[in-house]
Every structure is written in C-alpha cells, then in structure tokens.
Amino acid sequence: MLRVLIVLLLLIPILEIWLLMATGKAIGWVPTLLLCILTGVTGAWLARRQGLQFFRLAQLQLSRREMPGEVILDGIFVFMGGLLLLTPGFFTDFLGFSLLIPYTRGIARLCTKRWLDKKIRNGQFNVFTFNRFNRF
Fold it and tell me: Which is it for the CA torsion 99, 77, 84, 127, positive or negative?
C-alpha cells in the first residue's frame, strides 16, 4: 500500500503539470489560470453546499436514533472531492467533481464498502465496538 501511495504522489503531480502545460499551449496561460481558479471556486461552493446537506441529514438520522453510516461516508467523499478541487490541476479537478456527483459518488461508496468488507473478512482490518458493559 505504501508503494502505491509513493507512486501516486510522484505520478499525479507529473500528470497535472503536463495537463496544465498542454492546456496552456492550446488555449493560452490566462484562460488556463482562470479555468483553474473557476474550478476551485465552484468546487468549494459545491462541496460546502453538499457537506451542509449531509450534516443536516446525519443530525436528522441521529435524532431518529438511526445510524448515519451511508451519510457519513458520503460526507467524507464530498470533503475529499472539495479538497481535490482546491488543488490546482485538471486531473484532480476531474476526480473531485466525480466525488461531488451523486451517481459517481455512489459507485465510489460501493467500491469502498466492498474493499472494507474484504479487509474485515481477511482479518486485515479490526472493528472495535464499545457498549456500556465494557471496562477500560
């Protein structure tokens, strides 16, 4: 897992720089810069709006004594999408917008749940629950 993270940390900036340079050559550096700023501002606005909706929905579910698991996972994905949109570059903007769109976010949520389920079943991920009878 660490190797994959290191490769991603090296490849993503290279891809971003290449995309920015190619776009700058195609449409000019001023429109490229304005496009980067526009995607960042739009992404921050969308992430804030959707994040507040998920926060309210989680509060509503908790007040009904329901577990807001899906809503929390959606909120995490919206937060990650907002962070990706605030980073300069078009590849991270594409990933960020894909996490803000409900359909693609649902696909990411399903893949994440399957990955976590597989890790739990293989014993690579432990889940601890606490109840009022546990002693510390």
Answer: negative
Walking along the chain (136 residues) 10 residues at a time, the average pLDDT comes out as 87 92 93 90 88 89 87 91 88 92 92 89 74 56
What is the separation of C-alpha 68 from the centre of its chain, rounded to a whole number of angstroms? 18
pTM value > 0.90: no
What is the torsional sign of CA 48, 78, 97, 34? positive
Rounded distance between C-alpha atoms, residue 135 and residue 113, angstroms: 30
Count of residues making up the chain: 136
CA distance 117 to 79: 22
Q: Given 3-state DSSP classes, what are the helix, strand and coil percentages for the chain, each rounded to the nearest 5?
A: 80, 0, 20
